[in-house]
């Protein structure tokens, strides 16, 4: 038998069961903003144990947040903001609408508001309701330099209110369903990780050992590469590549390029207002076959892919180091090779300690490249183009499954907390 529904009068909620109510968040929970104890007092923080100090990157999980990069010590918790167990946390600055919770006492920084629910709301139902209200969070945020949703505006968000008994039923239903969905998502993520590892090892094997497993080998005298085919040469980078310093001074080139996730992509020069300079006269003009290296922020960022192969004429920021071949060679092979240098974190170990950035001069002094014959460079590049394309297609399929499952989970949560599916009979 279908349930009688009524219009809630709230656009993001839509219809709700006729016996449900609607209420402002401020009437359902105490909203409290987190804080950052003084960074100048080292005794406030620990990387090992203490009171979990939650930041936006800890949110958007369906598990209790209990392990964080930093914790507050006994002294730090006095200077910070402490929330009781089963608090729901909502990011209200920059990453608006990221939601999480903790089953234990915790703290958070000032980007996050803690929601301490009263007796009208089962806290776990409150968590799921806030997840469902993501678009409402975004709609109510103010934007100047960055998006901000203050606690007053957050408090005006309206939420559906079933009976406590039904809230508990909905929470139990969603706990079970979301856990099952997350298991499938995790399996797909594991597949993606294994495929990415396989791709990296395939590239490194091909560019350092070649395609013939029976060829005679010799010592490369490069620690991470070790042995290479006997016929290959070891040549300083500066012999093969020069730095491209050709600037777009006359503004004739407007094909804006950028390095993103190891690929050179086109950007719309007219749709990035506020993120780009007034003009592009200091940008570097690049051409097909150039190799771009992002060698900045080496101290902090150990995850980015830092190499990209240019396949079209365009302009790119001069903050990158752009390499132009000095002689006939296969740029695709050398891009794969430099990608392997990147994956092996070679750039991070150059010079005295860990550098914030590297110049072409520092790079050319320190990097030696291995070089097969031109014909073999082409064969290896062709092999890797084909192999990587197949692996990337498999990764894309798994990511598509993950995306669909995430969308299904969000729809399930929304329909459950607004009563569009009756969890009492599920």
Report on the biggest sheet: 4 strands, antiparallel
Helix content: 25-40%
Count the DSSP helices.
10
Distance linking N and C termini: 13 Å
CATH class of one domain: Alpha Beta
Low-confidence stretches: none
- The strand order across the widest sheet is 4-11-8-9
Strand segment count = 26
Which overall shape is indicated by the principal axes computed on the Cα atoms?
elongated
Mean of all residue-level pLDDT scores = 94
Rg result: 27 Å
Assign the structural class, choosing from mainly alpha, mainly beta, alpha/beta, alpha+beta, or little secondary structure: alpha+beta
Percent of residues in beta strands: 15-25%
**Which superfamily, in CATH terms, is the homologous superfamily of one domain?**
DNA methylase specificity domains
The CATH architecture of one domain comes to: Alpha-Beta Complex
Would you give the CATH topology of one domain?
Adenine-n6-DNA-methyltransferase TaqI, Chain A, domain 2
- Which quaternary structure do these chains form? single chain
Short description:
Keywords: DNA-binding, Endonuclease, Hydrolase, Nuclease, Restriction system. With 426 residues, this protein is α+β, with helices and mostly antiparallel strands. Helix content is 34%, strand content 21%.
Which properties best describe this structure?
Adenine-n6-DNA-methyltransferase TaqI, Chain A, domain 2, alpha+beta, four-stranded antiparallel sheet, 426 residues, 26 strands
